[in-house]
Amino acid sequence: MHLLGCFSLACSLLAAALLPGPRQAPAAASAFESGLDFSDAEPDAGEAKAYAGKDLEEQLRSVSSVDELMTVLYPEYWKMYKCQLRKGGWQHNREQPNPNTRTEETIKFAAAHYNAEILKSIDNEWRKTQCMPREVCIDVGKEFGAATNTFFKPPCVSVYRCGGCCNSEGLQCMNASTSYLSKTLFEITVPLSQGPKPVTISFANHTSCRCMSKLDVHRQVHSIIRRSLPATLPHCYRRPCTNRLKHCEQGLSFSEEVCRCVPSYWKRPHMN
Question: Rounded to 5 degrees, what are φ and ψ at 134?
Fold first, then answer.
């Protein structure tokens, strides 16, 4: 009997040694995996949505045309829309979604059914307001800082200067290249000692524009918009005058900046 009891005890001990123990508790397992940098936890959905929304906002703010706007919002549907327009017009689908259901598919369906005339009208207005050279009237006396007893006829000239809107609040419409136009005007000085005198003056004419950051604007070598003269360029950027005149008419003096005779009161503007 004693022998049988010892045998039973031995079997119990052997079974306990061979059989696997209880599974690790979920909390302990999670702590173990965390220690090894393994985790099945998903990223916060709200945080991911916030990042996605911010990225979309930046894209929307940077678009510069109707085509870019629709490409950002409805890329696949916009491709189909343009394809159908090239084929002769969009064929409206008979099966329209429930107007009371504001789902993502409903919005995409609406995007694919914009009226072509409306899109064209918006795009035309968009293009008109973009950063580009625009014809403006410049007051000659204010442009060159004429003496108070001197004025010009006509008092203004027509030139092109950069203007329009950029697609970001941090950008400004600036000139990328400039030419100089010579215009002949009457200069009149009072008290009148002689008749109106024809004078030829050079005016800055912006030929191309681009949207630039404020930092780039400060680095520009041209003084633009209201006063843009060749004298604002460093000497290393100026070409020597090849048509230097030895004599100028009375009241005029030769300018190395514009390589021509200019009114004697003309002064080089100060750089800010």
Answer: -130, 145
